């Protein structure tokens, strides 16, 4: 998601709405974990698309991404230097040592679940393993700062600090966001920033926090398909995302099975 909602007010959710969002996000994670089971050399990105659509049908939900702003698929499958919005095409076939990121959402009872994860294909390099580990750790570092009274910048700073401490770089062109009846709601949740800055974190916010991290140059290019974002130097990228609710007791991860 591009930077366009930062100054708009968040849409706060009731407890009843959060319960629906919890179910939506649990379904998303169930499907993502099922896709993860099928990751191996020789599988095409299209096979994951077909599986995701089949699982949506079984669970009685709609894929949130299909048709959103013209995106033609249910699933984003991004391989190696592809950061996000990679298209699940038949000619994209996994091979040993690849990193593959799945970004996926569903609509359940009018509310959107949204999550992402990165998986290694077979035996991967030590650097790829470390990139995945640091990116996922950064996600949880950000979630730890998602408390009522803090600022969005506290989340952003925690993510950026952890990533850069380990020699990697956050992608700045794409950010986390609010989520609810729409896939993208205010506020934006950048993966970089300064503590104490940005909108105040409020009870009832539901945020999709999603660090995207490059092993090299953090600058981005968009391929000719108009969707696929890749690292400018074609270095590896990783992407992890959870949707969380801000409660009086602290952040609650909704995208858990």
TrEMBL record:
Catalytic activity: Release of N-terminal amino acids, preferentially methionine, from peptides and arylamides
Any GO molecular function: metalloaminopeptidase activity
Domain of life of the organism encoding this protein: Bacteria
Pfam families referenced in this protein's UniProt entry, alphabetically: Peptidase_M24 (PF00557)
EC class name: hydrolase
Binding locations of a divalent metal cation 2: 114, 177, 210, 241
EC number: 3.4.11.18
Annotated InterPro entries: Creatinase/aminopeptidase-like, Pept_M24, Pept_M24_MAP, Pept_M24A_MAP1
Gene Ontology annotations of biological process type: proteolysis
Gene3D superfamilies membership: Creatinase/methionine aminopeptidase superfamily
List of residues binding substrate: 85, 184
Annotated Gene Ontology cellular component terms: cytosol
UniProt keyword annotations, A-Z: Aminopeptidase, Hydrolase, Metal-binding, Protease
Domain Peptidase M24, first and last residues per copy: 19-247
Family per record: Belongs to the peptidase M24A family. Methionine aminopeptidase type 1 subfamily.
Function field: Removes the N-terminal methionine from nascent proteins. The N-terminal methionine is often cleaved when the second residue in the primary sequence is small and uncharged (Met-Ala-, Cys, Gly, Pro, Ser, Thr, or Val). Requires deformylation of the N(alpha)-formylated initiator methionine before it can be hydrolyzed.
Name of the featured protein: Methionine aminopeptidase
Protein source organism: Thermodesulfobacterium commune
